[in-house]
Amino acid sequence: MTAAPARILLADDHALVRRGVRLILDGEPDLTVVAEAGDGAETVALARSERVDLAVVDIAMPRLTGIQAARELSRLPDPPRILMLTMYDNEQYFFEALRAGACGYVLKSVADRDLVAACRAAMRNEPFIYPGAESTLIRKYLDLLRQGRALPRKAITDREEQILKLVAEGHTSKEIGDLLTISAKTVERHRANLLHKLGLRDRLALTRYAIRAGLIEP
């Protein structure tokens, strides 16, 4: 008997990108897109309500980034496998994606070539790194070891990163509190901690930092 196709949740804030990726995936007999999300928070909500085997998630999305969403997906009782789909050929994003629970990293520029193979690798519980990345990443890792340095760590906690992104997107403390199910006062405390920890002065400086950190697009 033929196995049922892998059920895929596709998350990207651009409808045109989702349509193109869906065409690629739905054209394969062993893969089928069963749900689409336009931001990170919707991705997590859909994964909770739908039976999903695999989440294909863009890194740069509103409300929650793909990496933040991946962390939430990884904490679900029956988590889907996670592939990051991105335009960023960047080792920092790659390492963050792995830490967040992703098993693969696919560049949008070559999605038509790599995405199907990456989905199938994920469903076999195998990692997928886009061709050409291995030597760059291994060289980077060996350079860090040679210099006696660990892999780069984040300056802020996961929760602070969530709040920083939402502040930079212009949400009020109440809106952020509602989204993250915490009080507005707790949001204000986190924001004050962020300013102090990062040595920044105001919301504008936080927004600039969020852009540099790749949490929001300029």
Compile the SSE list and pairings:
Layout: E1 6-11, H1 15-26, E2 31-37, H2 40-49, E3 54-58, H3 66-74, E4 81-86, H4 91-99, E5 104-107, H5 111-123, E6 128-129, H6 133-146, H7 158-168, H8 173-180, H9 184-198, H10 203-212
Parallel strand pairs: 1-2, 1-3, 3-4, 4-5, 5-6
Characteristic key phrases:
alpha/beta, 10 helices, CheY-like_superfamily, Rossmann fold, Arc Repressor Mutant, subunit A, single chain, six-stranded parallel sheet, 2 domains, transcription, WalR-like, phosphoprotein, 218 residues, globular
Give an overview of the whole structure.
The chain is of the alpha/beta class and about 220 residues long. The chain folds into 2 domains: about 5-145, Rossmann fold (3-Layer(aba) Sandwich), CATH 3.40.50; about 160-210, Arc Repressor Mutant, subunit A (Orthogonal Bundle). The chain is about 50% helix and about 15% strand. The protein is built from 10 helices and 6 strands, in the order βαβαβαβαβαβααααα. The chain has helices at about 15-25, 40-50, 65-75, 90-100, 110-125, 135-145, 160-170, 175-180, 185-200, 205-210; strands at about 5-10, 30-35, 55-60, 80-85, 105, 130. Strands 2-1-3-4-5-6 form a 6-stranded parallel beta sheet, with helices on both faces. α7 packs across α9. The longest helix has 15 residues, at about 185-200. The chain starts with 5 loop residues before the first strand and ends in a 6-residue tail after the last helix. The model has no long low-confidence stretch (mean pLDDT about 85). InterPro entries: CheY-like_superfamily, NreC/VraR/RcsB-like_REC, Sig_transdc_resp-reg_C-effctor, Sig_transdc_resp-reg_receiver, Tscrpt_reg_LuxR_C, WalR-like.
